[in-house]
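Priority: medium. Attachment 1 of 2:
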């Protein structure tokens, strides 16, 4: 944008004022007519009342769009009988509490624009959920008892300024919450009844993971200036000391997955794109060793640990279809699991070894 500084005469001002009045009148006419300048005009759509002559076919396609959708239940870390899931059974997407085997699905949140961002505390006693304003994704975390309704929700992190959510890890003894705003990114740590900022930067950053013993947390950051390809930094929860750095920048990113669910096992699953697709590696924070997993599958890979951390549940996506596999971390044996054909949008292994997954046959 350029500007010119000079003297303005009365005549110039009069002409400018006249031009402005004409412009205002033109814009007003456009507003009243509902038309935009140089806008293309298209005929109004005239959809038929019914698409099919067959009542059966008509009801089938309508049912597809009106069907209730239910997300994969997310269990509490230490109390898997308490889960939270997203469903539109109420007419909009909200969080619901659920206990496996129960026919009841208590609605936990109720907001005009719906609620989809939330999770349980490790013991399953509390539900954390993100509360924004009219769906703008800018807000604060709230917390309420499991099975309770939204009227019992309270501010989860009093004194913390609102922002866009940038990761949340709720432990038994600590909470790490990331936020971003116009000033950049900040990470808050709550422990021993106090909350403090343990990281801030003008570039994008967020909370990546928290170890099972809650002694290590992982920061996902773009201090190198490219948020498309984040790097990882492991830090001590207690001292704040940097325990390790991992980066594939520039041009490639790393995504923090989950830590091993075994206390004292500091292996972290990490997603990478070193070979042109989404693959996996393990970063052992106890030794610093980084091990790429050579998994012989052609598509993109995602994974989570089995409860004893001896294997990974692999979610493999290729040619618009998803398959599940068990990958033994000691023998590297890859076993294809029997699942329904289609697309799988989430999967997990229960403590008893049972596999849950969310599936669509479309």
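Attachment 2 of 2:
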């Amino acid at each position: 944008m350029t500007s010119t500084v000079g003297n303005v005469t009365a005549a110039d001002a009069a002409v400018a004022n006249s031009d402005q009045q004409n412009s205002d009148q033109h814009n007003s006419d456009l507003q009243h007519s509902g038309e935009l300048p140089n806008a293309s005009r298209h005929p109004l759509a005239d959809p038929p009342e019914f698409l099919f002559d067959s009542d059966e076919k008509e009801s089938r396609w309508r049912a597809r769009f009106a069907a209730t959708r239910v997300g994969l239940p997310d269990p509490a870390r230490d109390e898997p009988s308490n889960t939270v899931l997203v469903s539109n059974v109420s007419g909009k997407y909200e969080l619901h509490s659920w206990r496996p085997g129960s026919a009841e699905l208590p609605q936990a949140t109720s907001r005009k624009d719906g609620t989809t961002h939330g999770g349980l505390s490790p013991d399953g006693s509390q539900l954390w959920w993100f509360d924004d304003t009219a769906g703008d994704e800018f807000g604060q975390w709230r917390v309420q008892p499991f099975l309770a309704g939204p009227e019992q929700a309270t501010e989860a992190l009093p004194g913390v300024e609102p922002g866009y959510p940038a990761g949340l890890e709720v432990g038994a003894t600590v909470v790490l919450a990331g936020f971003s705003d116009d000033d950049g990114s900040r990470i808050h740590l709550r422990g021993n009844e106090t909350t403090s900022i343990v990281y801030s930067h003008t570039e994008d950053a967020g909370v990546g993971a928290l170890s099972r013993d809650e002694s290590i947390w992982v920061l996902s950051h773009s201090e190198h200036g490219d948020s498309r390809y984040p790097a990882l930094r492991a830090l001590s929860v207690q001292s704040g000391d940097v325990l390790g750095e991992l980066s594939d920048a520039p041009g490639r990113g790393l995504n923090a997955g989950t830590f091993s669910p075994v206390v004292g096992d500091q292996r972290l699953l990490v997603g990478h794109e070193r070979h042109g697709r989404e693959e996996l590696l393990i970063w052992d924070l106890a030794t610093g060793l980084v091990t790429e997993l050579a998994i012989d599958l052609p598509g993109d890979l995602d994974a989570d640990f089995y409860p004893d951390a001896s294997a990974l549940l692999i979610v493999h996506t290729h040619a618009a279809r998803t398959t599940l596999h068990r990958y033994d971390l000691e023998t590297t044996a890859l076993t294809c699991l029997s699942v329904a054909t289609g697309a799988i949008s989430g999967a997990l292994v229960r403590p008893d070894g049972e596999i849950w997954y969310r599936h669509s046959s479309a």
